[in-house]
Design a protein that fits this description.
Elements: E1 9-14, E2 32-37, H1 42-47, E3 53-57, H2 58-63, E4 68-78, E5 85-89, E6 98-101, H3 107-120, E7 125-128, E8 140-144, H4 147-150, E9 158-161, H5 162-170, E10 174-182, H6 188-203, H7 205-212, H8 220-230, E11 231-234, H9 237-252
Parallel strand pairs: 1-2, 1-3, 6-7, 6-8
Antiparallel strand pairs: 3-10, 4-10, 4-11, 5-8, 5-9
Helix pairs in contact: 3-5, 7-8
Length: 265
């Protein structure tokens, strides 16, 4: 936790293209130290005090409802197709029984389990994707992040975008990650900084796509579509509804503790 009011804010952010609009301008802000990592490792950085605030997977937020609080209305969400959260499979979704999952993800793993149960009445056997495994040898693989676009696996005949599947199930947007900090921390300044960065990033999303997309392996046209149309960066009313519905279903399927309402406090 931040030790004194004169120290820099240490912010744990995701290292994917979809987070660049959320941190626009923060790298040059003298009040900020940015720490980049994959989504699954950011909760640990927050728990151990390496960062003061982190862009955490929603499922982790619910599991730590008594320890963390949401500190901004900025988020990583999608209304329909996400482009970067997909299950690649050799068979139709309703025939899948074993899903190997990307170790970088927490929320998307829970989302896949919920979707297959709700849409196809199937209990997936979820296994980690071994480092030495060839994705094409697996029955189905869940991948997230830039690599879904920049180094997509070969040999699969079916792709299921989890953002689209969620909208088909619920008619709601999906929220993958939010900014969280320890409960009790005075985050008024931080909340203002994060919201202002998001607002600047949304206004600059097309430019960010053009400048950073190719450097990160994205075609410019697709990067622009991704940041300006597919990914949503504000936790508005319908996104909060989608987040609440996800947590409700996660509770039904024993993926989170029963008391999660306080994540919205």
């Amino acid at each position: 936790m931040r030790s004194n009011t004169s120290a820099k804010w240490r912010i744990g952010a995701v290292s994917y293209l979809n987070t660049k609009p959320l941190v626009e301008g923060l790298e040059s802000d003298p009040r900020i130290d940015l720490v980049y990592d994959v989504p699954a490792r950011l909760p640990g950085l927050l728990d151990t005090g390496v960062v003061d605030v982190a862009l955490v997977p929603v499922i982790d937020l619910a599991q730590r409802y008594s320890d963390w609080q949401v500190v901004s209305d900025a988020c990583i969400g999608a209304e329909g197709k996400s482009l970067t959260v997909r299950v690649f499979s050799h068979a139709a979704p309703e025939s899948i029984s074993v899903l190997h999952v990307d170790g970088h993800s927490h929320t998307s793993v829970a989302l896949a389990a919920i979707l297959w149960k709700e849409l196809y009445a199937r209990d997936l056997q979820v296994l980690p994707l071994p480092d030495d495994a060839r994705a094409g040898d697996c029955e189905a693989v869940l991948l997230i992040g830039d690599k879904v676009v920049t180094s997509r696996p070969e040999g699969f005949g079916v792709e299921t975008d989890l953002g689209s599947a969620w909208q088909s199930l619920t008619s709601l947007p999906f929220v993958f990650a939010v900014w969280a900090a320890p409960r009790g921390m005075d985050t008024a300044e931080l909340s203002s900084l994060l919201s202002a960065a998001r607002d600047l990033g949304v206004r600059s999303a097309g430019t960010i796509a053009e400048q950073l997309g190719p450097k990160m392996g994205w075609p410019i046209t697709l990067a622009r579509e991704y940041l300006t149309q597919r990914i949503k960066f504000t936790l508005g009313p319908t996104h909060s509804q989608g987040m609440a519905k996800f947590l409700e279903l996660a509770k039904v399927h024993d993926l989170v503790p029963g008391l999660f309402e306080s994540v919205f406090a």
